[in-house]
Write a structure and sequence with these properties.
The complex is a heterodimer of chains A (245) and B (255). Chain A has 245 residues and is mainly α. Chain A has helices at residues 2-17, 24-39, 43-64, 73-113, 116-122, 127-139, 142-163, 169-177, 182-208, 214-244. The chains are: A mainly alpha (245), B alpha/beta (255).
Chain lengths: 245, 255
């Protein structure tokens, strides 16, 4: 019953976010600020993790393809499929849920605790639109981050394969191009847009409706990370079944 | 003027406000006092429209809040200024940004017009050299003055303050009290202050409402509070030895 109430409250919040928009002149500034913090600010960790995970995927694939009958190009193929289909959109989203989601919950939660949200409401401002809408718009640029994650992940795989002596460059690249289905990239981008919406709104919900003091802000950040991850994993299954099943 | 008629408010089984009726006059500093848990904050939040009363009505210059549409309520709220207990300044903005915020949101004034208005109100609250500083870089007293400047920058008809001098030293607290009182008279606004501070009661309480367990126990002026025999009020107001002596001196002087 408690969960049903929370789900209902979440959807009412989403409805409120799109009501009574803030002046575009102000909103534009807020959106650019959020792009800087939520997307540009997360690029470092996305690139770092993508590079090394791409490398690890390649090494593990290579070590499991030790039959001389299997072509080395399969290493490139497996790396591409793993990175594009799952790692870049889903794994990166879980990382973003931790980094960006915690930031969103704690920043909105602190505003709640220090009555800054009440101050916005008293002024007659739709605080949900003011606080959450720019975050939703900013995270819609998340597919660009996922595209970079795909590129860097595959680059990390190529470096691991070539410099680790697991596959020659030519065969790895041949594997990357083998049976390429462009819909897999579309599928990854569709997933990343849905996950981006979850990353912007679920942590906002936990921050906006939190009660208590500084300790509860920390607890809300942890809860928001758990729920954002759970929702992403469930939606990942549903979208995969719908789009690829 | 704000007319409050038989306000009730409950949270689950907790009946917080139990039929409060009063009138807050224009151009006067109205104080709500009472012990912690007496319903002061809930009452103030009902006046601000942050809580919807379960029963009763609140009328702002002839406009019944419960009968207003969402848009009309938001418009009415733009006529209200609020000074929060913890100032509630936006951390990410400078002092100037905080004060300019309502102008940015609700007016189409040019940058120079807004800047002039911000300079004027900051000067009015005696803050002339803090424009570019962030809330974390200024003292509690200065934060309160910025909060007052932000509250009055739109020329509000109603000013609400939730314990405006809590956490301040006595000298700064008196300065803040006097500032609010002067602004109330200068701009002829209806000011409602929620306070525990007995100095405020004595100095600026043109109308005082004493709440106890969700009821309005007493109402009067700062002159009348010296004379009252209401035990709940005297127990609360004269709980310190200093105020007991002040009252004794007043009674002796009167006799």
């Amino acid at each position: 019953m408690k969960y049903l109430e929370a789900i209902g409250k979440y959807f009412i919040m989403i409805w409120e976010v799109f009501k009574k928009p803030t002046k575009w002149r102000i909103m534009k500034t807020l959106i650019f600020k959020e792009i800087d913090e939520l997307i540009y600010g997360a690029m470092g960790i996305i690139i770092f993790i993508s590079f090394f995970i791409g490398g690890v995927v390649t090494i593990q694939t290579a070590l499991n393809l030790n039959s001389p009958l299997l072509p080395k190009s399969l290493i490139g193929f497996a790396t591409r499929q793993s990175v594009i289909l799952e790692f870049a959109p889903t794994f990166t989203s879980i990382i973003m849920a931790g980094k960006v989601g915690s930031y969103i919950t704690s920043s909105i939660g602190t505003m709640r605790v220090t009555e800054q949200i009440d101050a916005l409401e008293v002024m007659g401002i739709n605080s949900l639109n003011y606080l959450v809408f720019p975050k939703i718009v900013a995270t819609m640029l998340y597919p660009f981050a996922v595209a970079i994650s795909m590129f860097v992940g595959i680059l990390g795989g190529w470096i691991a394969a070539v410099f680790g002596g697991f596959a020659p460059s030519g065969e790895f690249i041949q594997g990357l191009q083998m049976d390429f289905d462009s819909f897999h990239v579309t599928y990854a981008f569709i997933k990343s847009v849905v996950f981006a919406f979850v990353i912007a709104t679920v942590p906002s919900y936990h921050g906006y409706y939190m009660t208590g003091g500084a300790l509860e802000v920390g607890k809300a950040s942890t809860t928001s990370f758990v729920w954002t991850s759970v929702v992403i994993i469930i939606l990942n299954y549903v979208l995969t079944q719908l789009l690829l099943g | 003027m704000i007319e409050v008629e038989n306000i009730h408010k409950s949270f689950g089984d907790n009946h917080v406000l139990k039929g409060i009726s009063t009138i807050f006059d224009k151009g006067k500093t109205n104080l709500i006092i009472g012990q912690s848990g007496s319903g002061k904050t809930v009452f103030l939040k009902c006046l601000l429209g942050l809580f919807e009363p379960d029963e009763g009505s609140i009328c702002y210059n002839g406009q019944y809040y419960s009968k207003l549409s969402t848009k009309e309520r938001r418009n009415l709220r733009q006529e209200m200024g609020m000074v929060f207990q913890g100032s509630a300044l936006f951390d990410s903005m400078t002092v100037e940004g905080n004060v300019m915020f309502p102008l940015d949101m609700f007016t189409n004034q040019s940058q120079s017009e807004k800047q002039d208005r911000v300079d004027f109100v900051l000067k009015r609250v005696n803050l002339v050299d803090a424009h570019k500083r962030y809330p974390a870089e200024i003292s509690g007293g200065m934060q309160k003055r910025v909060a007052i400047a932000r509250a009055i920058v739109m020329n509000p008809k109603y000013l609400f303050c939730d314990e405006p001098n809590s956490g301040l030293d006595p000298k700064t607290a008196i300065l803040i009290d006097n500032l609010i009182h002067e602004i109330t008279q200068e701009y002829d606004i209806t000011t409602v202050i929620n306070t525990h501070d007995m100095n405020s009661v004595m100095e600026i309480g043109e109308k005082i409402i004493f709440l106890k367990n969700g009821f309005k126990e007493w109402e009067g002026t700062n002159k009348e509070i010296f004379k009252t025999d209401n035990k709940a009020v005297t127990d609360f107001v004269y709980s310190s030895e200093l105020f007991k002596k002040v009252r004794q001196m007043y009674i002796e002087e009167r006799n």
